[in-house]
Design brief:
globular; alpha+beta; three-stranded antiparallel sheet
Length: 83
């Protein structure tokens, strides 16, 4: 990972901020939850549990001053390709 990006532990984010990050992620165009239909609350719970279990990481990009969610697997793959 380069110096402009770093992981933010969920414990360092307020409940309201974490909720906003998750909701923003869910409402983005192109977010795919498969063929099943889930309510916004169900989707938020799924993403929260993935963050809590560290399957999904909260990534801060200093250059764009933005936060994104990335799977741990994609994060590991990205970092191994840079070595």
């Amino acid at each position: 990972m380069d110096e402009q990006n770093f992981i933010i532990p969920m414990e360092q984010i307020s409940k309201d901020a974490l909720n906003s990050i998750i909701e923003d992620f869910i409402l983005r165009e192109g977010t795919d939850y498969g063929s099943e239909s889930f309510s916004l609350e169900e989707k938020k719970k799924q993403v929260y549990l993935q963050i809590k279990s560290k399957k999904v990481l909260i990534l801060y990009d200093q250059e764009s001053e933005s936060i994104n969610l990335i799977t741990n697997r994609d994060f590991q793959k990205y970092n191994s390709e840079k070595i």
